[in-house]
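Feature request, filed as a ticket because there's no other form

It would be nice if the structure record came with a short human-readable summary line next to the tokens. Right now we just get the raw output. Example of a typical job, pasted below so the devs can see what we mean:
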Amino acid sequence: MSLLNRTIKEIFPQDSELRDSAKERLDQLALPHWALGDLMDLSIDLAGMTRSMHPAVTRKAIVTMAGDHGVVAEGVSKFPQEVTPQMVYNFVNGGAGINALAKQAGAEVIVVDMGVNADLKELAEQGKIINKKVGLGTDNIAKGPAMSPAMATRAVESGIDVANELSKRIDIFGTGDMGIGNTTPSTAIAAVITGKSLEELTGRGTGLDDEQLAHKIKVLETILDRNKPDPKNGLDILAKVGGFEIGGIAGLIIGAAAHKKPVVVDGFISSAAALIAITIEPFVRDYIICAHRSVEPGHRAMQEKLGCRPLLDLNLRLGEGTGAALAMNLVEAAVAVLTEVATFEEAAVAGADK
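Raw output as currently delivered:
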């Protein structure tokens, strides 16, 4: 049996008894009923995910996966492909947005080379990144499939490998991405899985103007017409229109769910990976926390398909895992509400009149 199939067999829904216990306690807290709103809903989810009334979330990691995309040749990005490996070095050197925000959240940043079109062996040998390279970037999806079916499976299983290894010392995962051009495959994935139109889903990525945006939509039309991915087959979608880092993030989400660990899904690219993950195994939904709503217009439709509301809406569009890092502060707050706020009885406070 393959690693992917073995892992899927370990994924179960949240524990309903722990969810009920958490709700029972939250209903009795010494404050107006459900006065902390979405934080209290998140408390219930965390209890159900972790099977605990004291969910462990202190050991945090943002796993930022990097890969290049052949579709950049179609002029869908304002930045050249060379930026991907340059940003990997920036992550390693601690100078990126994710480094600052992860530090603030008390999370470590773990960088994974899933398919950067550059030789990063030295960084891997120094232990500064994890080498899971599937290839030197995907093929141009405007001309044909992104990768072979075997590569798609390998990308997902590489993400599972990372989750399996890190789960020994990490309580909660955040997803992150780096890959010039990756909003294009992510939009293609969103179109296939949500069924929404490309006009509704396609955004400006790294800052396209109106003419460039119209060109991007035409390229996406060509991509979907040429590849015709099966909307019910996550691996087929990944192979035909995805990316190596998108597959890796999908695998990380699947692996985290198998270990009953919460996974905070970042922005547009991470949400595309989450859509792949739930298409492969729907129960993965029970372990996903949507960090924020991106500026990318298709993000709302993606999150509706995932069945989760974002914790934040700050007009973010950086990726890297920055939104996930910010949201981890709220995850810790939700645990504090569940575990530290006294009930009316514990606080000797009179409850509301019935």
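Something like this underneath would help us a lot:
Residues 8 and 281 are 7 Å apart (CA to CA).
Strands lie at 60-67, 107-115, 130-131, 172-178, 263-265, 288-290, 292-294, 312-316.
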